[in-house]
Write a structure and sequence with these properties.
The complex is a heterodimer of chains A (93) and B (1000). Chain A is mainly beta. Chain A has one helix and six strands; from the N terminus they run E-E-E-H-E-E-E. Chain A has one domain: Folate-binding fold (2-Layer Sandwich), CATH 3.30.2270. Chain A has a four-stranded antiparallel β-sheet, with no helix packed on it. Chain A has a two-stranded antiparallel ribbon with strand order 1-2. The model of chain A has no long low-confidence stretch (mean pLDDT 94). Chain B is of the alpha+beta class and 1000 residues long. Chain B is built from 24 helices and 50 strands. The chains are: A mainly beta (93), B alpha+beta (1000).
Amino acid sequence: MFLINCPFCGERDQSEFSSGGEAHIVRPKQPTELSDDEWAEYLFMRKNIKGIQFERWNHVHGCRKWFNVVRDTSNDKILSVYKMGEKPPVNYK
Amino acid sequence: MPNYRIHKTEYIDETKRVSFKYDGKTYFGYEGDTLASALLANGIHLVGRSFKYHRPRGIVSCGAEEPNAICQIGSKKDLTEPNVRATELELYEGLEASSQNCWPNVKFDIGGINNFISPLIPAGFYYKTFMWPKSFWKKVYEPLIRLSAGLGKSPTEPDPDIYDHKYVHYDVLVIGGGVSGIIAAKMAAKNNFKTLLVDDKKILGGSTIYQNNESIKIDDKLSSEWLKNEIQEIKKLSNLTFKTRTSIAAYHGYNFLLAKENLTDHLPEEKKKNKIRQRLWKIRAKKVVIATGSIERPLVFNNNDRPGILLSNSINKYLDYYGVTCGENIILFTNNDSAYETSISLHKKGIKNIIVDLRKSASSELIKQAESLGIKIYFNHVVTNTFGYRKINSLEIMKLSEDGNTTIGDKIKLSCDCLGMSGGWTPMVHMHTQSGGKLDFRDEDQVFLPKENSEDQISVGSCNGDFDLENIIDKTVNKINKFLDIDNQDYQDTNIICSKENDKRNMWLLPNKIPLGKTKCFIDFQNDSTAKDIKLALKEGFRSIEHVKRYTTTGMATDQGKLSNMHALGIIADTAGVKMGKLGTTTFRPPFTPLTFGTLVGRNVGKFFEVIRKTSMHEWHVKNNAEFENVGQWKRPWYYPKNGENMHDAVQRESKAARDSAGILDASTLGKIDIQGTDASEFLNRVYTNAWSKLAIGKCRYGLMLNEDGMVYDDGVTTRISENHYLMTTTTGGAANVLSKLEDYLQTEWPELDVYLTSVTDHYSTASICGPNSKKILNKLFPNLDLSDENFPHMSFKEDKLENINCRIMRISFTGELSYEINIESKYGNSLWKMCIEAGKEFNLTPYGTETMHLLRAEKGFIIVGQDTDGTMTPSDLQMDWIVSKKKYDFIGKRSLYRSDTVREDRKQLVGLLTDDPKEVLEEGAQIVSDVKSNPIDMLGHVTSSYFSPNLNKSIALAVVRSGKTMKGQKLIIPMENKNINVTVSDTIFLDKENKRLNA
């Protein structure tokens, strides 16, 4: 059970949150101009890394805010949290 | 009756005699005993039969690692518990226990014949034997295996006991109250850390608490006396809490741990009543100190499993803690110093004993002490066989060759009534590995040790591989000072004298002249796997330790291999010629010892099993005989049977009344989302498939919401209340998910939009009145409201007051009838409902439930998301192309609607079905085919909704059928178990295609 430091509420138990998968996948601005393959790339393809992963979480049973998390999936350590729209921390590339 | 209790100890209260039953016979013990110590005091070693060969088995240990002394407690249908370790169960007046896995009884067990046919049941026996003939599995093999297998019986009625959960937060959690745990807890608490100390035993102190060897001293006191003082001191510390009879079951990430506290298991029946039996502690600790100690290893030699063969240190505990000797003529077989402590203890109490030591020689102070007491020691000798059926009566030893690989010389036969074995110690690294920690292997004494890699967790004491007292105390103090970043000086001048040395001669499988195939060298006592089985698995090509484990079932019994895993690994390493450190270990999984289901579930039983949501009108529904249906967490009226009606009759009556005169539905459970902001219209444009910009204030519109993959996700009517204010409704079950999804897009994709979402589902109650007389009823309720079609047309919204309370009234319809939905603040919901019923009396206003609602909408061909759709249906599949805007540049899911797969003509599509026999009602979920003779039959689709319509007087159904759009009028077949039902594909709308009834 993670402890997640919600950027709006502070540290809370994982049971208050829900995970939203990989972060920084921007919805195409002009979907109609994409080929099937390009659209499928956006719609279906996710990285699922062993190691440092950027992912989205929602404080669904709290402030309902979405935010980003940098997590090492090999040991579940959360290395950083930051708000939507903020630049991802550069030291975890 | 023999009495093996030979001296008094402070832990046994001999003034309090306790009677208990074991296998139907009454015995006596004392307060302070465990079931195991009481049985041993009565001279009982034989406590069960082994799992596979049904060999007689005795008590082996004194703790959680026990593989053999597993009992069934109690015999009531609701209160009986299997697989309880007699070594951990505290004795209480009236305890009833019985042995498991034996029939007809433990002394004469028919399954014992398996012992003689054991050459026929090797490793993987089940996989090899029960493979063929295939038809035998269900009727012969499985019933037979089930009959002879199984450890104990589960209760057949609900557990009457009370269980509890509790959340706690601490700065430091210390697991284990032995000497290192006590020191760690004291240091933490004295330095202002809020500390919790847990121990699974009844008292703190671990194995040092009953230590009475004069040559092991701290500050010139017996180590036990010194520790008692320490315990007295920590009990005075205000920020230290300690919990005994509490064992950590699981160590999860982020220092989240589960502990089980036994509260009443040790109490007599009458004192257990109305008390919480067990409590599950959910602990968050900033830092965790693991001080779980170590367990003694058995030795692997021929016939090492007879009753009367115990771990050497357990013999010591039974003697010094419980005052019970395990025999009168004891042999101790060891490869290290610790058996000498047992030997000296036994000697002091006048119990004759001799030592067989694998080592060529040894010369610690402890050994010198034993020698000076005249205790006979056979160095460089090995036990090669034991004898005695129900209990050991003698054994053979032989000298080891120079290299230790074989035996030499003559057999020496020694008589005994008890054998203690000590193969050294295995650190309990379970907690460390459960927390995600890795292990290192220490070659000198062949142990796996915690690899330090965390700032939040540390192992101290013998679970960290420090086995002698001097090392334990020194290292614990240093490590804790560093771990907590403190400078505690309490133990600076502690003077420790420990006469034990760590020297050990490790051999996983002991040499024997008898070929391995003819021996029974047990590794896993509970699952009956032997050294031979492990070697056979390797010979058959298994290499991975995880595979060997599963193939031989080593370590897979209820004890999870606490005594066996190391030997299995050792023999694999030796045989395969790999280094043990390279081999790795099997995974240590929670729980450490079995947990009861009751503890895990806690109070969440019966009516607390799940959250229940009720509408404001719920009590009225109950009073009026409603049957309820669960929709998500909501209880919704399903139908209202009258005068003993069955469901069918009630639904037919309700459906007819709604179309003939008037019906009323509690629609409060529909999800309601309040949407406000200057960009609210734009937002709706993006989330629904149809256009919203031009919806006039005071008007309502039906919307279909897709997932980004183009599949229908939810639907509902949204009302424009003012310029920048909408009220969206969602399906009852989808409300929470829709809100989450909308928030997701709003916050992450379109943060520039000025839109705010609020869930108002619980804020409003909704009564939906439909039918040709609904307008008259509305007129009685709202006499000042102009209900004319000009002022208040279909799909529009008005506000009015009902006795000064604001109401929102929508003229919308899910039944195809003229229909109004009245929304009011929830606290007035029940009054609104009653007023509607009252006003509707003269029009036979009939309350109807979800089943009638489903029937009425099916007559009109309206879909229910989740019933007629399943996450693979596009709007076009549902024949709802009309609701997908062609003009809008984008909305959620739009691009997916023209992917190559979604534009396929032969997708499954929604159609209507009419049965040739109008009385025949199809089963929902039934398969649809066109040709029953083809092989294999081509499956075209399935029925999604099916009813008998009283208004049409015939059976109607909705279905999804491959290329269904093009099949109107075509004959299809529904093959059922006993018959084939002929159907014709029809339009999805069965009633009032022209929508005349909406304005009736």
